[in-house]
Design a protein that fits this description.
477 residues; alpha/beta; Aldehyde Dehydrogenase, Chain A, domain 2; 2 domains; 7-stranded mixed sheet; 15 helices
Amino acid sequence: MFEKRDFYINGKWVKPFKSNDFEVINPSSEEPFAIISLGSKEDTEAAVKAAKEAFVKWKETSKEERINLLEKLLKIYKKRFNELVEAQSIEMGAPIDYSKSDQTAAGQSHLEDFILRLKDFKFEEHFDSKSNNHICYEPIGVCGLITPWNWPINQIALKVFPAFATGCTMVLKPPEIAPISPMLFAEMVHEAGFPKGVFNLVNGDGAGVGTQISGHPDIDMISFTGSTRAGKLISKNAADTTKRVCLELGGKGGNIVFADSYPNAVRDGVRNVMSNSGQNCDAPTRMLVEKTIYERAVKEATNEANKINVDLASKEGDHIGPVISKTQYDKIVDLIKIGIAEGATLSAGGPDRPSNLSKGYFVKPTIFSDVTNDMQIAKKEIFGPVLCIIPFETEEEAIKITNDTEYGLGNYIQTEDKEKAKRVAKKLRSGLVYINGNSLDPGTPYGGYKQSGNGREGGIWGLEEFLEVKTITGWKQ
Ligand code: NAD
């Protein structure tokens, strides 16, 4: 058990104002492995004050100064890469190889991309040659960054790097159940030599530090990633100070598998849902299968789910680890039981722990077939390794079912007919549409429609979220 009770405020690690210990649990063993502190109002106040004071000078820094510091941070990130791999694996249960190839690599790729985008970004431009109006893009100010546990460093990267790049200062509140990699990240920021107060970290829970940040009058913007539940509470609490609120929330992605899909489409869809133990907000958790290939698809999906190993996060190799916490485990198991009670066919997995593991928050890769879109398992974001298979007959019906959800983050299309794929992609109400397993390029915008949130992270869209736009008339006089 190790202790990491301090917060990073105004360029140094400081003791919490009041002691409020919190045990961080290893989800593979259900045992605590670290102690942190949950902050109080005084800690939040000290962090916001430091960020507000630092903004005065930081907003005046040149793009080159900020690029220079980000490049130093990139070197340190690469040097300490394996520490982040280990930390994310133990705190959130990512298998060690996945933690390296995906979780930690994602943070590095965002940093590299933001440096490139920043180099090309114009913070000033003339409106047009006939006009005497001038447009300036200026940092919005002090930002409150609230992040989730499912991709701890990736989500920090999508907020902290563009905030640095645009000249904003910030208070980061990482998830209390996965706070170790964020604290290592704060050490890296310190080592890179960012001026004091530009970046501050206070640990805490949603009801405490999270709420203090979202309602704070000296915070100009909140960037939040997490549940739709918390996103709504944050928006309400932020309303009195009319701060900008950017939200990346949940999802319930549809994956339309047409009869003319490529041979591995069903198997890839299953692997995609199960990766990260089903804890991806853009996971394709509703597989819609054209009726003519439905029976074959259910068999393929079942076989594939049965092939996926579930094991300790510390083990090397290709498997899935536990889900993050007892709360999430109980929620997922309850929803699996609800699916059975609702009359869906349990084709693989189920509510019991895998037989090779006697403890830990492990869930079997689970497939439900014969699901209808009005069942709770098709409506609620389960956030575990659970796939629902729903049959459809026509293209119109597939589009209707896919869009019949309160979410709109990631949807997927599988067909060899390129024109059909493009036609359907344009009809889907979501911020992301993935055709035939193609992935996102670095620097493309990421975010959702409807209750999956607002705003976009990544690339120039990610930079613009942190900027105010100013029009100055009479520039040429
Ligand atoms: P959560 O919303 O409970 O917690 C996320 C963060 O918000 C944590 O730091 C938590 O302490 C904080 N928080 C909770 N309540 C708060 C409040 N009232 N005010 C301020 N802060 C508060 O969610 P979670 O269980 O940690 O994460 C899982 C959820 O996040 C899933 O629903 C998932 O889809 C969503 N998610 C979305 C994306 C995306 O990019 N769209 C990415 C990751 C996770």
